[in-house]
Amino acid sequence: MSVSSAVSRKRKWGPRMWPYLFSLPFVLTYAAFQLYPVIYSFVLSLYDWNGISDRSFIGFKNYVQLWTNDPLFIKSLWNTLIMMGMFIPVTLILGLTLAYWTFHLVRGKNLIQTINVLPYITTPVAIGFIFSYLFDWQTGLVNLFLTKVGILEEGFYWLQDEWGSRAIIALMVVWRNLGYFMIIYMAGMTIIPQDVYEAAKVDGSTGLHTFRTITMPLLRNITVFLVVTSVISGFQLFDEPKLLYGGWSGSAQVGGPDNSALTIIWKFVDESFISNTRFGYASAIAYSLFLLILLFSIASYRLTAPKEDKR
Question: Which Gene3D superfamilies match (predicted)?
């Protein structure tokens, strides 16, 4: 190879190597702290290991036991799906309604947005404390109000009732995320051409009819995004139930009354660090959760996306 050809090849490949060199620190960091733990956790799910003794390879027995012989996992899955069914539709409907009403306000729009976004930036610990206090049996403001107006004769055990606990957790999620949903919908409304509304007004379309036939269809992609992300975050529900029953007043209660507030992530944490130290079994829960999120995310997209996007 001649000297001229070597120099030309160096000049050719020299500039092309710079992007790879600049991206190398991120790639190495990602491989060390993200990719390797993901792969290692799957390998660990094939073992029986408590973190101290020697690992014992058992294949897919952790997965078989999880889905066929662990009623608590099935109940945690059922609880998670029930609470998702409670808060996802409510948050979508209220978020869209509130966004439409706020978007058309002439005065006070910024104040309404600020008030509704504040819960979203509130720390989960504070949210757990607030709702634990509101629904306390003896000193809770909800029971005090309901008994004072005559709806209840005596205080109701909200936090010790199976469906009451799930409803409170769903209410916590709605209260926290409503402002976020409102902001996303309002952002979508800003890109809708006003000519469309003017043409509809000329044709005689008014308030509710315009909202149903123009605003909602044009916000379809926003709704798809919120549904899919809500499904993903719903399967990762942990902060609200854990802080509601996790000992804000000094006494922790895993899973709530009769495990009615136990979620998949709470089950995972309990198996890993609280009641047990079965790291292989907990890894099987994590990968099962990954598959559930993948399947339900695809299903929610297929059900909510416009027909032309379902390809």
Answer: MetI-like
